[in-house]
Design goal:
Layout lengths: L8 H8 L1 E4 L5 H21 L18 H14 L1 H12 L2 H7 L2 H10 L8 E11 L23 E7 L11 E4 L10 E4 L7 E4 L1 H4 L4 E3 L7 E5 L4 E3 L9 E10 L19 H12 L1
Helix pairs in contact: 2-3, 2-4, 3-4
Length: 284
């Protein structure tokens, strides 16, 4: 069901809309992510005076202390969901996460699956570690394609993989509709629901035609899938176990319709001009 000994990766990808590669990430990669992410969480907990009883990274080990990471993330989540969003942003621009993203095996497989020359440039889009606490479905989507969640009129594929712990049916691993990428851009509806992420959902009559596969995956494996493949996250029904996963897209910069997105950064505190005026006032 996952890697086929009888098909080349691109043949398998073209036929079924996805491909899973083993041993892309190592134990060392995940250990580094664990310490980096925990340290960021601890910094926010201490700076915001939420709790000062959590140990620092020097007394923790991976993977034995994943439950401690669950606890500190849940502490932030239950205290202030906006603060958890800031943790997301801090981690996404951390040096360790950049190093994690720049994996040569992912680059090589993406080139192969998109039929690109190996030296062609790729552009990353919304590469993030997703955090799914138990029973939190604010960012859980129905069956959807990624085509409307990325840069318009581009050529890309999506990557997804477990981070820190394996993904299982019980903690809500990713589900796909095998072969549904052959629909092209499927008929779907745009739904804006208060308190939840925008839902762009494929018509049920289309998704019902395809086999559902729940892809339980091991740490180290990476899923590559077509931007038209119908997919969704499962439901995390565990007690206190967070599902950590990597989501993101890689675009072919040479594609005619591709235009790089314009980055937009906004301070969570004062503006640059306000900061300037504050400091210059003190200098007078």
């Amino acid at each position: 069901m996952i890697n086929s000994a009888h098909k080349r990766p691109k043949d398998f990808f073209d036929e079924f809309g996805y491909f899973i590669e083993d041993d892309v990430y190592s134990y060392k990669d995940m250990e580094e992510i664990f310490y980096n992410f925990y340290d960021i969480c601890l910094s926010f907990v201490l700076k915001n005076k939420i709790d000062n009883t959590f140990p620092d990274t020097s007394s923790l080990s991976y993977p034995d202390d994943l439950k401690m990471l669950d606890k500190i993330v849940m502490k932030i989540f239950l205290t202030d969901t906006k603060l958890l969003g800031e943790v997301y942003d801090a981690f996404s621009y951390s040096l360790v996460f950049f190093r994690f993203l720049s994996n040569r095996k992912i680059e090589s497989i993406t080139h192969e699956l998109l039929g690109m020359v190996s030296k062609k440039a790729l552009y990353g889009w919304t590469n993030r570690m997703r955090i799914d606490p138990p029973k939190d479905e604010r960012r859980t989507y129905g069956w959807h394609q990624e085509i409307f969640y990325t840069i318009p009129n581009t050529r890309f594929l999506q990557t997804w993989c477990p981070m820190l712990r394996d993904t299982t049916i019980s903690n809500g691993t990713i589900e796909i509709k095998k072969g549904s990428h052959k629909e092209g851009i499927a008929k779907q509806s745009w739904n804006e629901i208060e308190g939840r992420a925008t839902q762009i959902i494929i018509d049920k009559g289309i998704t019902d035609r395809y086999e559902t596969i729940q892809l339980e995956m091991k740490v180290g494996q990476v899923l590559f899938f077509d931007g038209h493949l119908a997919h969704r996250s499962g439901h995390n029904s565990t007690k206190g176990e967070i599902r950590f996963s990597l989501v993101g897209m890689w675009n072919d910069i040479s594609y005619e319709g591709f235009r790089a997105a314009q980055p937009s950064f906004q301070s969570r505190t004062i503006s640059a001009k306000e900061y300037f005026n504050q400091k210059m006032k003190n200098e007078k």
